[in-house]
Design goal:
It is a single chain. The protein is α+β, with helices and mostly antiparallel strands. It contains two helices and nine strands, in the order H-E-E-E-E-E-E-E-E-E-H. Strand 4 and strand 5 form a beta hairpin. The longest helix is centred in the C-terminal third of the chain and has 48 residues, at 236-283. The chain is elongated. It starts with 87 loop residues before the first helix and ends in a 5-residue tail after the last helix.
C-alpha cells in the first residue's frame, strides 16, 4: 500500500531526448534557462560590435563620414600648399611674345617692300622729271642706253598733266648687247603717276632674258613736251602674285602682332605676380 499512484494516460519520459526546463521551484525567482555557452537571441556575441559598427580594424563603409581629430575638421599637421615662385613660365611666355612682335615687324617690312614694288612710285620726282626708279629716260623721239638685268621692264610716257590724250606715234624698240631686238609688248599692268604738273602712264613693256647694256629707241609722241622713262615693272602674273602677297602679308602681320602683343603683356603681368610671390617667400613669414 506504500506505492505511488501513476497518472493515467501519461507517457514515461525518454532519457535520450532533452527535457524542458521545469521552471523554478516554488517561491524562487526565475534565473533563465541553464547557459550552454551561447548568447540569448538578440544579444551580440562576446567581442562582436553593435549593429551598424565595424569590426575592430575594419574600415568604414562607403559613404561613411570619418571625423578627423577630436573635434572634426582637417587632419592636424597638414602643411599648406606651397606658393609657386618659379619664373620659368613667365619668362618663356614673354620671350615668345617678344619673338612674335619682332616677326610682325619683319613681315610688315616685306609687305611694304612688295607693295612699293608693284606701285609706280619713283617714276616722277616732285618737279615732274624722271624720278628715283628711272633706269633710263629720253625725249620722244630719242635714243638712250641702260644696263639691265633679266626681268620685266615698263616704259612710261610722260606728258604735261593738261594733255589728256597722248601716245607714241610708233613702236619703241630695245636692242640687246648682241644686236638682238627685244620686241615691245603691250603693258602688262596699266600704271599711272602724277607729280609736279606731269602725268606718266605705261605705253609698252619689255621682257629681258640676258644681262647687258641695251639701247632704247623711241619714236615721236603726240605731245611736243613728251619724254619716256624706263623702270622695273611687272607682267600680269608678277603683279597678281605681288598683290596677293601684299594682302596675305597684311593679314599675317596683323595676326602675329595681336598674338605677340597679348602674350607679351600677359607674360609681363605673370612675371610681376611671380616676382612678388618669390620675394615674399624669400622674406619669410615676418614679411606677411
Amino acid at each position: 500500500m506504500g506505492a505511488t499512484p501513476q497518472q493515467p494516460n501519461q507517457p514515461e519520459p525518454n532519457p535520450s531526448q532533452p527535457q524542458p526546463y521545469p521552471g523554478p521551484p516554488p517561491g524562487q525567482p526565475y534565473a533563465g534557462p541553464p547557459s550552454s555557452g551561447q548568447p540569448s537571441p538578440g544579444q551580440p556575441y562576446p567581442g562582436q560590435p553593435y549593429p551598424g559598427q565595424p569590426y575592430p580594424g575594419q574600415p568604414y563603409g562607403a559613404g561613411a563620414t570619418v571625423p578627423y581629430g577630436p573635434y572634426g575638421g582637417p587632419p592636424p599637421g597638414v602643411p599648406p600648399r606651397p606658393v609657386k615662385t618659379s619664373l620659368a613660365g613667365p619668362i618663356t611666355l614673354t620671350a615668345v611674345g617678344v619673338f612674335l612682335v619682332v616677326a610682325t615687324i619683319v613681315v610688315a617690312f616685306f609687305v611694304v617692300r612688295t607693295f612699293v614694288s608693284i606701285v609706280p612710285l619713283g617714276v616722277l620726282d616732285g618737279s615732274g622729271n624722271p624720278g628715283s626708279s628711272s633706269l633710263a629716260s629720253t625725249d620722244a623721239p630719242g635714243t638712250t642706253t641702260a644696263t639691265l638685268e633679266p626681268g620685266y621692264y615698263d616704259l612710261y610716257l610722260v606728258v604735261p598733266a593738261s594733255e589728256r590724250y597722248a601716245n607714241l606715234e610708233g613702236t619703241a624698240q630695245l636692242t640687246g648687247p648682241d644686236g638682238e631686238l627685244v620686241t615691245a609688248e603691250p603693258p602688262g599692268v596699266n600704271g599711272n603717276a602724277s607729280m609736279g604738273g606731269s602725268r606718266a602712264f605705261t605705253v609698252a613693256g619689255f621682257r629681258v632674258e640676258s644681262a647687258g647694256e641695251y639701247t632704247l629707241t623711241v619714236p615721236a609722241a603726240s605731245s611736243d613736251d613728251a619724254l619716256v622713262v624706263l623702270v622695273e615693272g611687272h607682267d600680269v602674273a608678277g603683279f597678281v602674285s605681288g598683290l596677293l602677297g601684299t594682302v596675305g602679308g597684311v593679314f599675317v602681320a596683323i595676326g602675329l602682332g595681336v598674338v605677340g602683343f597679348g602674350l607679351t603683356v600677359g607674360g609681363v603681368i605673370w612675371w610681376v605676380v611671380r616676382a612678388k610671390a618669390r620675394r615674399r617667400s624669400l622674406a619669410g613669414p615676418q614679411a606677411a
